Amino acid sequence: MKKIYLIGIGPGNPDYLTVKAINTMKKVDVFFLLEKREKKGHEDLVKIRKEILKRYLDRGTYRVVTAKISERKKSGKLYKEGVKTWRGQKAEVITELIKSKMKDGENGAFLVWGDPSLYDGHLEILQHILKQGAVNFEYEVIPGITSVQILAEKHKIPLNRIGETIVITTGRKLKEYSPAEVINTVVLLDSYSTFKHFKDTDIDIYWGGYLGTDDEILLSGKLKDIIEDLKKIRKEAKKKKGWLMDTYILRQPEGSESNE
Ligand SMILES: C[S@@+](CC[C@H](N)C(=O)[O-])C[C@H]1O[C@@H](n2cnc3c(N)ncnc32)[C@H](O)[C@@H]1O
Asked: Quick one: DSSP state of residue 10?
């Protein structure tokens, strides 16, 4: 039987790999690297994965197979449908890789950004492939450190204060929240500075771009006081590197009515 590992590698720095991830990598015969050709900065993300392999494994003990996948088209389709179609295409590529690039009894792996449980499609794709029945394999998840944890680490904050709720959401969903619903709201996947919807409130923000990497940028404070700086920093970072990954937490200040 073939076996696939989904190995969480942390959000951009080889220092954030767990011992379990490293020990699992040592058992892997073939690593699959998926390259999104059209996506700006994607080569940086592939480079980090190659650095991880070089740092932790002996040369000649594993194979690397790269495959091109297309970027998700932001078509007129509904968001969920668009993602489903794109994942379907990715599933076809992965099926073919497992079928043709692994021998029976071998271990294969995908190096998953951050942790496979957080806004990542690999698990659902593997489950979809097994359901389709075109190829058979076992699979295992190796957890990784998420961008959310690095955000908390770098700002030296817990994600909640005593007994409070934590919500993890996307920029797309954040638009639907009222200020009173924002207690500890962690936001990922926000290309549009959606925090601007809360600029007239008393909410605090803890923001991090390129967390854990050499280009890391941190900013925190009362949103209404730093919003212009934040918008500028995001714009300049995108221009300089061609891409930006950022995560932030919006938080009611201590003692405000909504968090009691
Ligand atoms: C598709 S999600 C993947 C999340 C990942 N599985 C994790 O555990 O962090 C991508 C989003 O994660 C966040 N992210 C990932 N890496 C990051 C980093 N190094 N710094 C800041 N945010 C990051 C950004 O919000 C980005 O849009």
From this structure: B
Number of the ligand 1 atom closest to the C-alpha atom of 208? 21
The atom number, within ligand 1, closest to the CA of 112 reads 6
Does residue 8 sit in the same domain as residue 110? yes
CB 23 within 8 A of CB 142: no
CATH of the domain at 196: 3.30.950.10
Asked whether residue 31 falls in the same domain as residue 120, the answer is: yes
Claim to verify: residue 118 and residue 183 sit in the same structural domain: no
The CB of 212 under 6 Å from ligand 1? The reply is: yes
pTM of the predicted model as reported, rounded to 2 decimal places: 0.93
Which amino acid belongs to residue 133?
G
Which two structure tokens, joined as six digits, stand for 174?
Answer: 């954040």
**Residue minimizing CA distance to atom 16 of ligand 1:** 11
12 within ligand 1 shell (Cβ under 6 A): yes
Per the structure, the complete domain to which residue 155 belongs is given by 148-259
Q: Are 11 and 68 contained in the same domain?
A: yes
Q: Single out the residue of 196, 205, 195 nearest to residue 151, CA to CA.
A: 205
CB atoms within 10 A of CB 184: 20
- The finding on whether 171 has its CB within 6 A of some atom of ligand 1 is no
- For residue range 129-187, what is the model confidence (pLDDT) as tens digits? 999 998 999 999 999 999 999 999 999 999 999 999 999 999 999 999 999 999 999 99
Query: C-alpha 16: how far from its chain's center?
Result: 14
pLDDT tens digit sequence for 73-109: 665 567 777 777 777 889 999 999 999 999 999 999 9
Check if 201 has its Cβ closer than 6 Å to any atom of ligand 1.
Answer: no
Q: Please give the tally of structural domains in the chain.
A: 2
